UniProtKB/TrEMBL annotation:
It comes from Oxalobacter paraformigenes. The lineage of its organism: Bacteria, Pseudomonadati, Pseudomonadota, Betaproteobacteria, Burkholderiales. Substrate binds at F155, L156, K157, E158, K210, F255, I256, Y257, P258, G259, G263, K329. This is UDP-glucose 6-dehydrogenase. GO terms for molecular function: NAD binding; UDP-glucose 6-dehydrogenase activity. Residues 322-425 form the UDP-glucose/GDP-mannose dehydrogenase C-terminal domain. It comes from the Bacteria. Pathway: Nucleotide-sugar biosynthesis; UDP-alpha-D-glucuronate biosynthesis; UDP-alpha-D-glucuronate from UDP-alpha-D-glucose: step 1/1. It catalyses: UDP-alpha-D-glucose + 2 NAD(+) + H2O = UDP-alpha-D-glucuronate + 2 NADH + 3 H(+). PANTHER family: UDP-GLUCOSE 6-DEHYDROGENASE TUAD. Its EC number is 1.1.1.22.
Length: 444
């Protein structure tokens, strides 16, 4: 099938490349000229494991190509996928300007029937808005080539995006009343061989399903973080509690890790946008607000522990701290809303300096923070420790997981603040390291 994908970010590019890999013909459109120029050369502008090889392979097989011309994109695919960003607006609701721009672009030049498939995460009712925009542009043009709007939210995880797309848990398809999902069955047939993963529903339910999934996952994290804070006060170890509750098959072990808060481009904005949707439909979403509040509080938790260790915020001024992990999670360079950023900014406000290392997010950190004198990016994790007062860990990259006590001696004092509970507090103590983690009662 011929497919056009608008947006070549984490979702659009992975979608395009994976569809091409199974034999579809794909044209990707983006308004970012620099990105398209790099993609045309076979370069991947983001870090996503496996993506570069797959891209190169499909570019040379002639199954995927790139353009900045929306018109070319509209002329190409029977299926027009929208995978552009939906960042938060000032009031927390999803900003739909990019989605609506693409809808207008499609309507502005389509000549024959088109399926307009929305992959971006959008509030309930967006498909309706897309439909109206397309209708009004077509009316102005005085043409009626026919079209259908389909909701097809994406559930891939950054860091495992290729596997998630190739072997999805489910493929959600929302169709208008009276329409079937035959075209989507055909599109996704290569990903749907093992068992039928395609779930067809009405459009509003499909749109809400995406928010429900992210809000549920965020809720699990905030619940565990709240429990961790209780554990700290009552002298319990949240890691023991986690194992204890995970063994209950109704609860399970997935996604119940306490830590320094959730970040990334999805959970924070989607929890807020869902709360906004609830409010504008007349329902006060108490749980969703609490999930967000617990998270905002948790993101500053390591900083508070640091302040209390040193005897106040003022004491941090002029000191240097080492940071391991800048990305919001391992296997990605994405730093959008990352917990590291909350603490970096608090440290700078307090007059401290930071020496940081991340296996892949260094360029992204440079792009965000520029060359500030109080932010040094080091070439390896070891040199981040030199002359630093303490180590702060924000991302559970695999190469941080074994405590290397020789390396930790490069710190001025063996002092670690671990936002991901990577180490065994007993082992740290035995090796003379003062160790703060999240919810591990004995250290507080
Ligand atoms: P992104 O910011 O990485 O990429 C968006 C891309 O769209 C950018 O390259 C931008 O230049 C491009 N764009 C903007 N306007 C355009 C236009 N008019 N025509 C063509 N391209 C245009 O975003 P992302 O992380 O890929 O997310 C896209 C959507 O998917 C969002 O709604 C997000 O919530 C959702 N989503 C993201 C993830 C994830 O893990 N990142 C997972 C599932 C769903």
């Amino acid at each position: 099938m011929k497919v056009t994908v608008f947006g070549t970010g984490y979702v659009g590019l992975v979608t395009g490349v994976c569809l091409a890999e199974t034999g579809h013909q794909v044209l990707c459109v983006d308004i970012d000229e620099a990105k398209i120029a790099r993609l045309k050369k076979g370069e991947v502008p983001i870090y996503e494991p496996g993506l570069e090889n797959l891209l190169k392979h499909n570019v040379s097989a002639g199954r995927i190509s790139f353009t900045t011309s929306a018109k070319e994109g509209v002329a190409f695919g029977l299926i027009q996928m929208i995978a552009v960003g939906t960042p938060p607006d000032e009031d927390g609701s999803a900003d739909l300007q990019y989605v609506m721009n693409v809808a207008a672009d499609i309507a502005g030049s389509m000549q024959t029937y088109r399926y307009i498939v929305n992959k971006s995460t959008v509030p309930v009712g967006t498909a309706e808005k897309v439909r109206k925009t397309v209708e009004s542009v077509l009316e102005k043009r005085g043409v009626n080539p026919g079209f259908e709007v389909i909701s097809n939210p994406e559930f891939l995880k950054e860091g495992a995006a290729i596997t998630d797309f190739m072997r999805p848990d489910r493929i959600i398809v929302g169709v208008e009343a009276g329409k079937d999902a035959a075209v989507m069955r055909e599109l996704y047939a290569p990903f749907n061989r093992n068992r039928d993963r395609l779930m067809v529903m009405d459009i509003r339910s499909a749109e809400l399903t995406k928010y429900a999934a992210n809000a549920m996952l965020a809720t699990k994290i905030s619940f565990m973080n709240e429990l961790a804070r209780i554990a700290e006060r009552v002298g319990a170890d949240i890691e023991a509690v986690r194992h204890g509750i995970g063994s209950d098959s109704r609860i399970g072990y997935h996604f119940i890790y306490p830590g320094c808060g959730y970040g990334g481009s999805c959970f924070p904005k989607d929890v807020r946008a869902l709360a906004k949707t609830a409010e504008s439909s007349g329902y006060a979403p108490q749980l969703l607000h609490a999930v967000e509040q617990v998270n905002l509080n948790q993101k500053a938790h390591l900083f508070r522990l640091l302040c209390s260790h040193f005897g106040g915020k003022e004491a941090l001024s002029g000191k240097t701290f080492a940071v391991w992990g800048l990305a919001f999670k391992p296997e990605t360079d994405d730093m959008r809303d990352a917990p590291s950023r909350t603490v970096l900014e608090l440290l700078w406000q307090a007059g401290a300096r930071v020496q940081a290392y991340d296996p892949v997010a260094m360029n992204e950190a440079k792009r965000i923070y520029g060359n500030r004198p109080d932010f040094i990016l080091t070439g390896d994790k070891e040199s981040a420790l030199d002359n630093a007062e303490a180590l702060l860990i924000f991302t559970e990259w695999r190469n941080f997981r074994i405590p290397d006590f020789e390396t930790l001696k490069r710190l001025n004092n063996p002092l670690v603040f671990d936002g991901r509970n990577l180490y065994d507090p007993d082992l740290m103590e035995k090796n003379g390291v003062t160790y703060y983690a999240v919810g591990r009662g004995r250290t507080h």
